Each structure stands twice: as structure tokens, then as C-alpha cells.
Amino acid sequence: MPVSAASLARFAGLLADRSRASMCLALLDGRAWTAGELARHAGVARSTASEHLTVLVGAGVLTERRQGRARYVELAGPEVAAALEDLGALAGERERPTSLRTVRADARLAEARTCYDHLAGRLGVAVLGSLAARGLLDTTAGLAVTPAGRRWFAEVCGPAPSGSRPPVRACLDWTERRPHLGGALGAALLRTALEERWVMPVPGLPRALAVTPEGALALTGPAAVAG
Amino acid sequence: MPVSAASLARFAGLLADRSRASMCLALLDGRAWTAGELARHAGVARSTASEHLTVLVGAGVLTERRQGRARYVELAGPEVAAALEDLGALAGERERPTSLRTVRADARLAEARTCYDHLAGRLGVAVLGSLAARGLLDTTAGLAVTPAGRRWFAEVCGPAPSGSRPPVRACLDWTERRPHLGGALGAALLRTALEERWVMPVPGLPRALAVTPEGALALTGPAAVAG
DNA sequence: GCCGGTGTTCGGCGGGGACCGAACCGTCGG
DNA sequence: CCGACGGTTCGGTCCCCGCCGAACACCGGC
To answer: Which residues form the HTH arsR-type domain (chains A, B) (predicted)?
Structure first.
């Protein structure tokens, strides 16, 4: 017995609005946003945004956290982020960069950025390739961790996270159109990379990352530094 | 540069209508339907269905084939089917069976059925488990084919299909709530199973399959026949 | 050529929902 | 206590779009 058409339609309807879609895409950076920020981002009145957020939270797409007078919302979980990414990949059409300012920002984001809670951009794709070349991941069919890879992740990121989230996930990169490493281990790797200063957030450019020399060595190996 | 909110919203809007969702879900059986059949299935006038189909074909979700006076439509490809399945899994809510007739049909479908172009139901889940137990698939992290598995698939299904479609894909089963085997090899396995008479279509119940004794042996091994 | 069946086009109706502004409520800070 | 600020509620407007029926176009068969 499949999903009912009604519930599928209702669910798709959540994203079938420009403002709500805009908010969800913004939240793909993995951070919590306030209602006002999202209103400004989507270009609608605060009242309108408030109603949209109530809908999305009610449907379980977002979770909220009240803090003083602020209402913070974020994506309800990695599954939601994954669904958004996949749907976005299928939707296909891209925004066209317009000003020089945005072109520069886009270039930084294309180089290295976060994708929800893992690495993306040229760096993210290179990391996946490097891990595969080093025999730590198996990409011959689907994506899986090799025994050597399990040891490596345990050594670098600490004990493997448990839970229902798949350890590795091939996440289609929006700029590279090739997969990068998502899943629980992808998230753990980003956490380690930030702690170890392999990558640093770029001030004023929320999702962008700057790669340090040590980071290039640790993440992609001695040879594969340049994109 | 992410997908634009507008294009994501537009795409989601395609499924955000009860009638269109109903048609797409019907088409998940992998067959081509005529416009009239889909109109009846969705419970709308032929004229309405015609408009919906024009929209879906125009957006690339469906492809059409004119044949005489009939207009056949089907899903544009496995990616679309996969996206529908994932979205449906996330949407969650299920239809409630209503009459005895449908309960019986549901029971057959829960036992063994096709899911677009591969095996599903208790059988599908059992096949995945059996292949993993025999060391032909690796499920410890994600889903991947082992070297032994590659040899087995080549022997049983012929040369491995090439192309961009991922060889194996964990497809969440609607009735079992556990993954079964999708992807190119999943499709090849169903093709073989039909050719070898391991499973037979059930007359009058489109997606249902009956498992033959040889099929149970070949697909799930000597021990794991009963559900 | 006529007829039945299938699909499409068009006009018109109706409902849902996205949006805003104004008023209001809470919280924080002086 | 008051003002500033973030968020919410409510009425009201507007428009989009899903739906139908009627008329029409097309194909196939007798």
C-alpha cells in the first residue's frame, strides 16, 4: 500500500511555494535562523514568514527553539536536508549570478563550503576522490566504507557515530555536479576539520570555507591540492 | 550556487496537487498508462487529466508516446521514480485499506510485487537480506556490491549494465519499512527473475508477483523461504 | 460516410492560499 | 515604567489554478 496521493500532495505542497522553498534552501546551511532573517531573505513581510514557519514546523520539516523574544528555526534533521538536496538536484535549474559581488562569493562557495553538516564544493568532491584513491572508500558500486576506511575514520574523527543515519551518503554537489561525502561520517569529518583548523569559516560569507595548507594535506593528500 | 527557490517551488508544485500526485504514484508501477485510465484512477474528468498530463510531460516528469488515438504516458526515468519513492517515504502517511477485496490485494502486494522495475515487498526485503548474508552485498555502511557479488550478478543476469544509473540503491520498502534492492542491478535481477519464471505476474493485480519454488530457492536461498 | 471512443480546447466557476498592514503581545534594556 | 524590537493574529484582498461541461478534433471500424 503506497503513500496516499493526498499526503504526497500535501507534503510536496510545503515546498511548492516560492517563499517556503526559499526559506528551506537558506536553512540548508545547517544553522538556525530567526523568523525575521528568513522573512528578509525570502522578501516577504514578517507576518507572512511567521505563518509559513508555523506551517513548516507543524509539518515536521523544521524544528523551532524559542529564545527570549526570538524564534529560531532549523531543518528538522539530516533526512530533510537530504530530501531537499535530492529534490533540488532534480529540479535542475540554477540561479544566474548577477553582480560582480555575487560572482566572487559564488567562486568562494564553489571552492569549498559546507553542505548542511558536511564538506562540499571542489574540496568536498576532491576529498571523496582522495579517500577512494587511498582505499578508504569503495565507489565501485554505490558508496561504502572499506575496513581500512573504518580504521581511518575512527583514528581521525574518534569513535564512529551510532544511530540510524547512514554512515556515508553520496550527496550530489550543486556546483561540481559530482558526488561529495555526506552521511554521519561526512559530518564527523567536517567537525574534525573545523576543530583541527584544516578549514576555517570565511567571515561574512556564511557557508564558505578557506582551506589551510595542513587541511589540504590531511584531507586530499600531498598530490591533490590544486583543483 | 544552489537551485533557485523559484525552480524548486515550481518543481515541487508539480506534485503538490492531489490528482497529479495520484497519477504519478500510479505510474510508479513502471508501465505506460493512457490518459483516460489515469483520469479514472485520479477521479477527475478526462479534460482535467489531459491538462495535468500536458503539464507533467512539459516539465519532463513524464514522457508520452502517441499511438493511434491513445496517449500513453510513463515516468521519464528511474531518477524520477527514485525521487517519488523517497518523497513518498518522507511524506509518511499511508492509505488505510477499506474493503475485504482490497485487504486481500494488499496482502498479495505486501508479499511480493514490483517497485517500478525491481523487486519489492517481503520478497524484495528478503532478497536483499539473503544477498547480504551470502556476502554478495555489503550493507555495513551504505550499500555496495562485493567482488563476489559482481561475479554472481554477471553469472545470473548477464553482463553488468553500464550507464550513469547507480548499480545498487537501497530503496525504502513501503510495506516493510526496510530497504530492498533497487538500482541497475535490482532491475536486472527482476528481469532475470521474470525470464527464468522465478516469479510470475498475478493476473488482474498489476504489480503483484507470485513466487515459484525455484524462485524462492534462487532468490533467497534454501533456508529463508517462509516470511 | 457514419459512429463510438479517445483526447483536447475553451469559457466560466469556485475555493484556497499567499500576501499585506494594522493592531497587539512579550521580552529586553535603559 | 517606557520605548524598541521581534513575533503573532486578524481582516481583507487578490489571484492562481483545479475543476467541469460543452464543443470540437482525431482515429479506427463497420
So the answer is: 1-95
Name all domains of chain A by residue range, CATH numbers in brackets: 5-76 (1.10.10.10), 84-220 (no CATH)
Q: Do residues B119 and B174 touch, judged by C-beta distance below 8 A?
A: no
Best interface-test mutation with A: which of B80, B90, B168 has the largest number of A CBs within 10 A? B90
- Please tell me if residue B5 touches chain A, with a CB cutoff of 8 Å: yes
- Contact between the CB of B38 and strand C at under 7 Å: no
Looking at residue B125, its pLDDT comes to: 87
* C-alpha to C-alpha distance for A177 and A126, rounded to whole angstroms: 12
- Which DSSP state fits A123? H
DSSP B32: -
Mean pLDDT, rounded, for A74-102: 72
Exposed/middle/buried for residue B101 (C-beta within 10 Å: 0-12, 13-18, 19+): exposed
Helix (H, G, I), strand (E, B) or coil at B118: strand
Q: Is residue A171 helix, strand or coil?
A: strand
Least confident of A81-85, A166-170, B195-199: A166-170
Structural contact between residues A61 and A24, judged by C-beta atoms closer than 8 angstroms: yes
The residue ranking higher by pLDDT, A94 or A6, is: A6
CB contact under 8 A, A91 and B8: yes
Minimum CA–CA partner of A92 in chain B? B3
Determine phi and psi for A93, rounding to 5 degrees. Answer: -50, 140
- Please measure the distance between the N-terminal and C-terminal CA atoms of chain B and give it in whole angstroms: 48
Chain B residues whose CB is inside 8 A of the A13 CB are 12-13, 16
pTM, two decimal places: 0.68
Residue A211 confidence (pLDDT) above 80: yes
Chain B CB contacts of A17 below 8 Å: 9
DSSP for residue A45: -
Q: Report the gap between the CA of B93 and the closest CA in chain A (Å).
A: 6
Query: What is the structure's pLDDT at B141?
Result: 58
The per-residue pLDDT of chain B, averaged, comes to: 81
- Is residue B13's beta carbon less than 7 angstroms from any atom in nucleic acid strand C? no
3-state secondary structure of A56: helix
Is residue B209 exposed (0-12), middle (13-18) or buried (19+ Cβ within 10 Å)? buried
Judge whether residue A69 contacts strand C, using its CB and a 7 Å cut-off: yes
Least confident range from A212-221, B167-176, B190-199: namely B167-176
What's the rounded mean pLDDT across residues B148-155? 88
What is the pLDDT, as a whole number, of residue B227?
A: 36
**How far in angstroms lies nucleotide C10's C1' from the CA of residue B70?**
22
